[in-house]
Amino acid sequence: MSNLDYHVSYASHRVPVMGRNAVATSQPLAAQAGIRMLQQGGNAVDAAIASAMALTVLEPTGNGIGSDAFAIVWDGKQLHGLNASGRAPAEWNLARFAGLKTMPQTGWEAVTVPGAVSAWVALAERFASLPLTTLAQPAIDYARNGFPVSPLIARLWQAGYNKLQQQPGFTECFAPGGRPPRAGELYRNPAQAATLQKIAETRGEAFYRGELAQKIVASAQQHGAALSLADLSNHRADWVRLLSRPFAGGSVHELPPNGQGIATLIAIGILEQWDIGRYQPDSAPCLHLCFEAMKLALLDLERYVADDDRLAFPAEHLLSDEYLQQRAALIDPDRAGDFTYGSPQQSGTVYLTAADASGMMVSFIQSNYMGFGSGVVVPGTGISLQNRGNGFSLDPQHPNVVAGGKRPFTTIIPGFALDAAGQPLMSFGVMGGTMQAQGHLQLALRVMLHKQNPQAAIDAPRWRVVQGREVMVESGIDRNVLATLREMGHLISVEDPLSGHNFGGAQAIVRDPQGFYVAGSESRKDGQALVC
Fold first, then answer.
1. Are strands 377-378 and 238-240 parallel, antiparallel or unpaired?
2. In the prediction, which pLDDT does 311 show?
3. Residue ranges in 177-233 assigned as alpha helix (H)
4. What percentage of the chain exceeds 90 in pLDDT?
5. How many angstroms separate the CA atoms of 121 and 136, rounded?
6. pLDDT of residue 9
């Protein structure tokens, strides 16, 4: 390891990057993997898949081969939504988790069927122009030959090790020398390289029905888990119809439940009732209305959202004009409120985006959920598994109650916006649990309504509704504005963006009417936007 001090840093300034092709990811080497595919004649989907596969190697603190994934694709003419989240093992039911107050966060009992591999395959089969073996090569090279661990990832790696070192296979894979890698050290994962090679050569068959599936299930059985070969074999990624709301002369599009994207659309619909565009984006009146709208949206999200085919009513009911008007009417423009959910029936994650000169754009997200996820790693494979099972409820009356074959509520969401003519305007995403729907709202407001460039919109101080009247904000918001918000009844806490409190990383690509792209990426983290 070099003698460089990776703890020293100073504030930096980024400008948006521009070009006819663009890739923005949470990790620079992953962005380069996508650019390599574009330079080899691939399209935006090729770039997205290559970056996504590389991220499983380069940023294991947020995603892995055993993650879930979602995508929105503009193919040049229309939008397509992909839900590649996994379902619960068929044997799961309430009785299995009797005596628990919440679903497990770690270990095999937190693992649902991993869906990310099926996302890569589904996207490749429908849109890619290069072979999956070519798209996998950068990831395989990084895993086999090693890559230098960045300071931020090293800190997250150490935190994950402290929490998960006793989980099956974790230390063997992620701390082979008895400790996690430090900043600036090379990390290699040859087992993961071999697994990625098998996945690419068999177009995912080895993972869901072949050699890798058998290894996954053998490890599950060894630890008394319910995951079976049938659970893996029956998994499918689904192409779904998107939900949307008109906004700022265009429209914002999100995937339907089991994700939280609908909360962004609810908040947008509520803010439209208040003519939010008349306020400056960093003013107290604007922030107050945004806090209140988001609180209302998150309450409905918590109460109603589950697997799409298990909802008590169509998700569109939460987005009807009549319902949103009722919710907006609850807001006092001068005081923070305490709300409950409405009654509409009566009326560590990684994100990436890629775009190419032909007009294709991809918004893609994949995640373990909580950092390294369950902490479980299948021996000899480099397959680390998510903990999405923790997203289920144990309330038998809740639509998101745990059940076999059911998708849990998930936090990860890609976003997309169209302009007034129905043409692509922006592919975007924000990482970080419950921050994601809130971050989508903030990016849409800044770029679509206030015409900020994507890098400025990403660098702007963000806020996060926590609970009740509690709101966490990043330092950088004017202190007089904060004083006004406190006088209105908001319980404001101010945090440094790098304090460890999750305001989410972000990436966005905006399409300029002249035919090129303007890209921005998270300056607080390791994110990178590249063009060619």
1. unpaired
2. 79
3. 190-202, 205-208, 211-222, 229-233
4. 86
5. 11
6. 64
User: pTM (2 decimals)?
Assistant: 0.95
Taking the C-alpha atoms of residue 388 and residue 381, their distance in angstroms, rounded to an integer, is 20
Which among 434, 488, 495, 486 has a CA at the least distance from the CA of 462? 495
Tens-place pLDDT, residues 7-62 = 766 666 788 999 999 999 999 999 999 999 999 999 999 999 999 999 999 999 99
pLDDT tens digit sequence for 376-433:
999 999 999 999 999 999 999 999 999 999 999 999 999 999 999 999 999 999 988 8
User: Would you give the end-to-end CA distance of the chain in angstroms?
Assistant: 32
CA distance to 44, 430, 445, 520, per residue, from 287 (Å): 35, 19, 11, 23
CB 410 within 8 A of CB 90: no
Judged against a pLDDT cut of 80, whether residue 523 lies above it is answered with no
Distance CA 70, CA 80 (A): 11
Say what angle helices 435-444 and 284-304 make with each other, to 10 degrees.
140
Q: Concatenate the DSSP letters of all residues of 120-147 into one string.
A: HHHHHHHH--S-HHHHHHHHHHHHHH-E
How many angstroms separate the CA atoms of 306 and 304, rounded? Answer: 7
DSSP string covering 471-527: EEEEBTB-HHHHHHHHHTT-EEEEE-TTSS-----EEEEEE-TTS-EEEEE-SSSS-
Catalytic residue status for 349 = yes
CA distance 444 to 428: 9
Residue 85 has pLDDT above 90, yes or no: yes
* 3-state SS assignment for residue 175: coil
CA torsion angle 129 530 249 265 (round to 10): 80
Active-site option among 25, 134, 349, 434: 349
Mean pLDDT, range 208-226, rounded to an integer: 98
The CA distance from 212 to 492, in Å, is: 49
3-class secondary structure for 435-447?
HHHHHHHHHHHHH
pLDDT at residue number 122: 98
Strand 491-495, strand 470-474: pairing? parallel
Q: Which two tokens stand for residue 301?
A: 């999200």
- Burial zone of 280 (CB within 10 Å; 0-12 exposed, 13-18 middle, 19+ buried): exposed
Q: Write phi, then psi, for 530 (nearest 5 degrees).
A: -125, 150
Q: How far apart are CA 294 and CA 2, in angstroms?
A: 46
